[in-house]
Amino acid sequence: MMIKSECLVPMTEANQNFSKVTRAVDENGMAVILKNNRPRYVVVDFEQYNTMEAAMQMRQDMIDSAADGLLEENIEAFLELAK
């Protein structure tokens, strides 16, 4: 994942000046907080979070649907294996 340098905020600075984190989110859509010079936390706009959450739920629903379909199509084989 490519991260713009404008999004990076060291942990110490985030603790002392949280407005810098919120400004980075407002300007770039996210802020990446560094701990020990490594990306550790991501702060995103709440609307973007809702969009990501909806996409993850849709993905999980598709996986569940595919698994249900495989079980239904192969129920006899699974029952035989379960003996």
Task: Set out the fold topology.
Elements: E1 8-10, H1 11-16, H2 18-28, E2 30-35, E3 38-44, H3 46-73, H4 75-81
Parallel strand pairs: 1-2
Antiparallel strand pairs: 2-3
The biggest sheet, with number of strands, parallel, antiparallel or mixed sense and barrel status, is: 3 strands, mixed
> Would you tell me the structural class of the helices and strands?
alpha+beta
Shape type: elongated
Pattern of helices and strands? EHHEEHH
Beta-strand segment tally: 3
Strand fraction equals 15-25%
Look up the CATH topology of the largest domain.
YefM-like fold
Major β-sheet strand ordering: 1-2-3
Mean pLDDT: 92
CATH architecture of the largest domain: 3-Layer(aba) Sandwich
How far apart lie the N and C ends?
47 Å
Determine Rg (CA atoms, Å): 21 Å
The count of domains is: 2
Helix content: 55-70%
- Helical stretch tally: 4
The CATH class of the largest domain turns out to be: Alpha Beta
Low-confidence stretches: none
